[in-house]
Backbone:
């Protein structure tokens, strides 16, 4: 059932994306020829690219291809899409996992501590620090990190990796983008952790535990946290999805060859086959993460299992 | 070698001949093959890493679709052309050993022997023919198709390539320098447009579209005094700050499009120097002359007096450019008209022309995006401010970069009659005018049509008298400037920053950016 | 360092004023207001003060700003001086005036966007959780489909299609944000709708709207309020990111997000100019969230300090 829903969702996404790119002004031929377009060359190029077919026909062609696992070739330069995406998908996943590995533990720990010591100086400082970090635009955080950590020679200011780069080099070169992303997503997760826990602190069973003389840490970890997991898991899933799908700005600043940049390029060039393929990957990642989050939330709140 | 010998010898041009429209071509003296003296001792070796503010995953290898600095530089690194534009603007033989024409209509290009592609295949006349034909014909998608439309036939004749035109044109050799027309390997009369094989100084090792390309020196390169680096790396860095950072941290050696506002700070770091090369490139604001109110030349003049050109050069270009007088012909052009009455910011004059147009005030909308040129949105805001003092209420409409050239430029939907544009400038006047100012030209962005101008344009092509030709081009510039429908406030310099460890020649080409895209083969390690 | 020192001094001064005002409020008022003033932590009173100042600046912008928003009054990037307290921007407009007008535009846009996103997203989310079944499935899948498309790229698509007026900008960002709010509201409400008191209310025959308003919303308020504080600030960032990708607010309108972008390259050389609008955003973000935290704390019913 879940899987079927997921597939249905991917189908809706492909329709929405296709529709939206159809509505965009201009087409691939316009974008390829740019300022140099003439009616004659436009017509010739459209003919070559098969852009003259009506939209439903083109969608159908794409869909039948995609269903058989053939995502086709990039219309702009004729390269197979699987080849275009391959290495970039790996890069995107690597960066997302790297940033998640840095940010999830930190935000959980900070969130729990902030809830435990709520309204203390620590709480306020962690809060203000995290908020300040996210209130700077991503590219600006990146510039500041480059100013401090790259211009001093500690880390490279841009990422130049290829499939042969070793893991160690990758971790080193990708540190600044991962750190930028960590600063961007930590506040959200940390605050949700804190809020979800505090929200439960007035519950009778917590009151009970307190009256029993349990230590605050134990109360938070044993009683509050498990019940607060649902919203926390959801926020983590959202942020993980963001780390995979939404990091185009960081990719641009660090010249990181990921999928976001590919998608923006393809959108602005109206290379619909590439847009569709990347959008589907993003959607699939998103669906998978949310499925996981839903399942985990259900497990943590047994009452949800017995609905209707 | 220098066998282009037609001034007065092969045929004797006369005033009468010109008037009769007989076979006579102009600019004869200009187009001499020319060899630059070899530069001072340059060192071999090293890796030259270039960060370029362009590049997209959808970039095509097909030269007919090249349009930005990344693919242009990449193309020049791996390909050769029939003819090269030297750093001093003179034509230099490359794959064509020389060129000649007896009548300006049929041109003969002997092909250099002993040159081979990276694959080992020898460069032949057939390859050249196929390379040119790639841009011709009904199913060609090349952007230079309109420019080569006057070619009626290209054929190989032994080691020669013979090009026939529909009418004499002395500027043909210039067309053969166009960056879209490299010499590609062919089979059965067709080129493989998506090949990375070429006969240039560097062999492609890897290419990730929109990310990076790496090239190694071609050990069999036929030029001994070129291609000094062992290795070239071209990295696409779209973000201006990231480009600057990459240069400062030593990760690249050359960057383009330096933000003028940061030049002073960059220079004070002492790791790199700024190269600011004046050329014919210019920024402009075309108005659709078919549409009111721009159909009235008084309105156009009012707008031309309502902007502060010097302030734009100072702010938008950071001083790295020159004030332009609505003239697409630049100071680097041969027949540049420098004595025209300069238009300065003059709200009173603007008001006067508005009155002449029967208007007391004027409401216009200018559509701008930084896709047109870097700083276009700021330039629009400045224009709007200065225009206000002249009673012109100018709304700045910032439109998306995405789709700018297809959706905004040339007013395709009738609601962007006034927008922003950018031209790379052209080496010859005729090329510029024919491309963007002749009535009915595909890229006549202001839809301007002036009978006198169109007549002069055709006449000048075959005029041989230097003096008369100059007069004609001056008159054309006067017409474009004072009656034309494109406001051109500034010529922008090619602005790049290069690391101190790279040696650059004394003279750097004004023809295109990056030393005419040839920095890869002309420059060397210091 | 002078810059850092003045920032710290400024913040300290704000805290001092906030403290003084709270003390004054405690002394002046009586009854409920007084107990409110007594409860309020210093951070929250700091937040309230900052919000009050921003609101005042936003409303009184034309009276406060020394120069008009759009007028070019000097050269490019002039240094700080008596005439131009914070210098001039890229094309020679007064930086201080732009910041002041920016308060009006930025805060206005961000508030309108977030409010819209919350009204739409929260109501739909709570409703979906309450009713469940096919409605829940249909809404959730639709929202999932929209969320599965990266927000920034989706906004980029929509803005390119529909144009870049301020109204479209608000609608597009609100639409994208509403999906996030929907998801959170639904997740939170799912934990609530299985509670006994909801079952009881249902048995009493209460309608959906009543249940959402009176039973679910109050109990789902805390995480939603926390989310509001963040979403509000994300709007600035969205505008800033959009302008990084070449879209955004129409000139000559001053907006902090775009101002950060316009001056961002200067930070490469350690120049503080782009920090000014970024700092304005950061200060407001922190202030809003301090107040949100305080409300969150009150809503949780915890009395211990």
Residues:
């Amino acid at each position: 059932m879940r899987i079927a829903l997921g597939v249905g969702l991917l189908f809706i996404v492909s329709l929405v994306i296709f529709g939206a790119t159809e509505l965009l002004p201009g087409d691939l031929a316009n974008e390829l020829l740019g300022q140099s377009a003439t009616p004659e060359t436009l017509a010739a190029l459209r003919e070559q690219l098969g852009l003259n077919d009506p939209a439903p026909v083109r969608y159908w062609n794409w869909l039948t291809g995609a269903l058989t696992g053939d995502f086709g070739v990039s219309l702009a330069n004729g390269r197979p899409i699987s080849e275009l995406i391959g290495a970039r998908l790996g890069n995107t996943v690597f960066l997302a996992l790297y940033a998640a590995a840095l940010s999830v533990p930190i935000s959980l720990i900070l969130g729990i501590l902030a809830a435990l010591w709520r309204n203390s100086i620590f709480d306020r400082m962690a809060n203000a620090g995290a908020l300040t970090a996210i209130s700077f635009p991503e590219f600006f955080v990146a510039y500041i990190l480059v100013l401090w950590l790259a211009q001093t020679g500690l880390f490279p200011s841009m990422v130049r990796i290829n499939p042969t780069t070793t893991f160690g080099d990758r971790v080193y070169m990708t540190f600044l983008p991962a750190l930028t992303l960590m600063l961007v997503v930590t506040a959200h997760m940390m605050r949700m952790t804190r809020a979800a826990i505090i929200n439960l602190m007035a519950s009778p069973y917590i009151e009970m535990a307190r009256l029993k003389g349990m230590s605050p840490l134990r109360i938070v970890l044993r009683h509050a946290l498990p019940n607060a997991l649902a919203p926390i898991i959801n926020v983590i899933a959202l942020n993980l999805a963001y780390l995979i799908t939404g990091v185009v700005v960081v990719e641009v600043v660090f010249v990181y060859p990921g999928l976001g940049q590919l998608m923006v390029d393809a959108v602005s060039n109206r290379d619909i086959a590439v847009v569709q393929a990347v959008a589907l990957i993003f959607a699939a990642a998103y669906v998978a993460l949310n499925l996981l989050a839903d399942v985990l939330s259900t497990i943590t709140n047994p009452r949800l299992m017995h609905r209707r | 070698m220098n066998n282009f010998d037609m001034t007065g010898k092969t045929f004797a041009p006369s005033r009468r001949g010109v008037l009769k429209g007989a076979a006579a071509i102009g600019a004869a003296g200009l187009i001499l093959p020319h060899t630059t003296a070899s530069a001072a001792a340059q060192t071999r070796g090293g890796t030259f890493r270039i960060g370029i503010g362009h590049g997209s995953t959808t970039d095509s290898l097909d030269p007919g679709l090249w349009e930005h600095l990344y693919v242009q530089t990449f193309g020049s690194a791996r390909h050769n052309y029939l003819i090269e534009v030297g750093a001093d603007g003179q034509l230099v033989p490359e794959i064509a050993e020389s060129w000649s024409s007896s009548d300006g209509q049929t041109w003969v290009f002997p092909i250099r022997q002993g040159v081979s592609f990276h694959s080992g295949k020898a460069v032949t006349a057939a390859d050249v023919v196929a390379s040119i034909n790639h841009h011709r014909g009904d199913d060609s998608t090349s952007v230079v198709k309109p420019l080569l439309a006057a070619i009626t036939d290209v054929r190989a004749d032994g080691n020669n390539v013979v090009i026939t035109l529909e009418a004499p044109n002395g500027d043909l050799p210039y067309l053969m320098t166009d960056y879209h027309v490299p010499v590609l390997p062919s089979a059965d009369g067709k080129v493989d447009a998506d090949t990375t094989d070429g006969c240039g100084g560097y062999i492609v090792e890897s290419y990730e579209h929109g990310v990076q390309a790496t090239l190694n020196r071609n050990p069999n390169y036929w030029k001994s005094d070129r291609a000094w680096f062992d290795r070239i790396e071209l990295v696409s860095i779209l973000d201006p700050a990231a480009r600057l950072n990459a240069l400062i941290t030593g990760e690249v050696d050359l960057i383009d499009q330096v933000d003028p506002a940061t030049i002073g700070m960059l220079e004070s770091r002492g790791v790199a120097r700024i190269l600011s090369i004046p050329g014919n490139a210019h920024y402009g604001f075309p108005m659709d002359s078919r549409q009111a109110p721009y159909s009235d030349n008084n309105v156009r003049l009012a707008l031309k007096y309502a902007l502060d050109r010097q302030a734009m050069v100072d702010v938008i270009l950071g001083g790295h450019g020159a004030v332009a007088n609505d003239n697409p012909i630049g100071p680097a052009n041969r027949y540049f008209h420098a004595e025209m009455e300069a238009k300065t910011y003059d709200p009173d004059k603007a008001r006067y022309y508005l009155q002449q147009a029967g208007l007391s005030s004027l409401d216009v909308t200018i559509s701008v995006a930084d896709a047109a040129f870097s700083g276009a949105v700021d330039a629009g805001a400045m224009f709007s401010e200065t225009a206000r003092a002249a009673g012109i209420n100018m709304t700045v409409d910032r439109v998306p970069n995405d789709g700018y050239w297809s959706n905004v430029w040339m007013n395709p939907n009738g609601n962007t009659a006034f927008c922003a544009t950018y031209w790379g400038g052209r080496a010859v006047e005729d090329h510029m005018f024919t491309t963007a100012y002749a009535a009915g030209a595909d890229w006549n962005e202001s839809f301007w049509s002036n009978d006198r101008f169109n007549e002069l344009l055709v006449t000048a092509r075959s005029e041989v008298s230097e003096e008369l030709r100059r007069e004609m081009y001056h008159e054309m510039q006067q017409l474009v400037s004072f009656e034309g429908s494109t406001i051109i406030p500034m010529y922008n310099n090619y602005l790049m920053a290069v690391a101190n460890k790279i040696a650059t020649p004394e003279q750097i080409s004004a023809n295109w950016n990056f030393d005419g895209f040839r920095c890869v083969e002309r420059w060397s390690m210091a | 360092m002078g810059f850092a020192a003045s920032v710290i001094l400024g913040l300290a001064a704000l805290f001092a004023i906030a403290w003084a005002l709270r003390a004054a409020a405690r002394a002046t008022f009586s009854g409920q207001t007084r107990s409110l003033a007594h409860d309020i932590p210093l951070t929250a009173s700091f937040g309230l003060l900052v919000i009050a100042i921003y609101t005042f600046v936003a409303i009184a912008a034309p009276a406060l700003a020394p120069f008009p928003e759009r007028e070019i009054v000097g050269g490019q990037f002039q240094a700080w001086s008596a005439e131009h307290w914070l210098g001039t921007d890229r094309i020679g407009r007064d930086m201080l005036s732009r910041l002041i007008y920016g308060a009006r535009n930025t805060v206005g846009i961000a508030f309108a966007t977030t409010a819209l996103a919350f009204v739409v997203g929260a109501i739909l989310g709570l409703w979906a959780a309450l009713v469940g079944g096919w409605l829940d499935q249909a809404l959730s899948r639709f929202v999932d489909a929209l969320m599965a498309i990266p927000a920034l790229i989706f906004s980029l698509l929509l803005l390119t299609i529909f144009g870049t007026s301020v109204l479209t900008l608000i609608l597009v960002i609100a639409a994208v944000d509403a999906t996030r709010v929907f998801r959170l509201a639904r997740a939170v409400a799912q934990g609530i709708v299985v509670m006994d008191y909801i079952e009881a209310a249902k048995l009493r025959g209460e309608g959906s709207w009543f249940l959402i308003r009176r039973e679910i919303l109050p109990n789902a308020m805390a995480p939603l309020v926390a989310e509001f504080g963040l979403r509000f600030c994300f709007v600035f960032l969205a505008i800033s990111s959009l302008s990084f990708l070449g879209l955004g607010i129409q000139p000559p309108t001053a907006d902090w997000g775009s101002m950060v972008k316009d001056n961002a390259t200067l930070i490469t050389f350690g120049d503080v100019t782009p920090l000014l609008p970024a700092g304005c955003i950061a200060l407001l973000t922190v202030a809003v969230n301090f107040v949100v935290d305080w409300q969150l704390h009150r809503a949780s019913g915890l009395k211990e300090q």
Remarks:
- DSSP finds 14 helices and no strands in chain A.
